[in-house]
Automatic annotation (TrEMBL):
Protein name: Ribosome assembly factor mrt4
Pfam families, per database record: Ribosomal_L10 (PF00466), RL10P_insert (PF17777)
Alphabetic keyword roster: Cytoplasm, Nucleus, Ribosome biogenesis
PANTHER family per UniProt: MRNA TURNOVER PROTEIN 4 HOMOLOG (PTHR45841:SF1), MRNA TURNOVER PROTEIN 4 MRTO4 (PTHR45841)
Biological process terms in GO annotation: nuclear-transcribed mRNA catabolic process; ribosomal large subunit assembly; rRNA processing
Amino acid sequence: MPRSKRDKKISLTKTDRKGLAWKQKIIEDIRHCVEKYPNIFVFQVQNMRNNLLKDLRQEWKTNSRFFFGKNRIMQIGLGRTKAEEIEVDLYKLSKRLTGQVGLLFTEKSKKEVLEWAKKYWAVEYARSGFKATETVVLPAGPLEEFTHSIEPHLRSLGMPTKLQKGVVTLYSDYTVCEEGKVLTPEQARILKLIAKPMAKFQLTMKCSWTKESGFELHVEDDINDDEDKTDSGQGDDVEDEEMDQDESDNEEDDDEE
């Protein structure tokens, strides 16, 4: 039988790469924010969750702007060296854009932001690789919070379960995790299923720059600000003309809203 012309395979895994135009726009947005907002902070994220960061963006959108994406692009926006910086000492912020960090541009005062950051946190479910903060043991007996249909899935995760008169039942005590030990993917899934969050989403303000008082370090580090060179954390420098090349950095959450 001849193959139909309508029978075409379409790959759902292919998406357009974010190219040079998108990256240049981020740089322009950052430079515009330097002019617009009086205060800039470099924040570090613990237990990153996209949904919580989006909530913060929504909450702060009237007088602030969050950037969280490629560190090297944000560095270029601020200026990686004294020669490139668009305001005095902004290159010191660039030096600290390493790891899971972002930029906060805001009209709120430095004191207000620092006090908020100390108090703000949100509980979230831990992922694999996270060190358990406590030992969790499930006693033998019925697990009435689960429907009978999920029992095979629980068994596939390593739990000693069976159906007893249509009720999911543990036939022996089961240790989900032990304090201080790294969670496996299976353990992380079980903790989510039993509604046991362990991780804490937090923002730590590493340093700040204000038009009024300039640069200030809030968390001590070993970065030498006298060296007129920015370490991107990637082991290489990125020139403007190279920005259209494919990069393997994490793009799951950028500054576009």
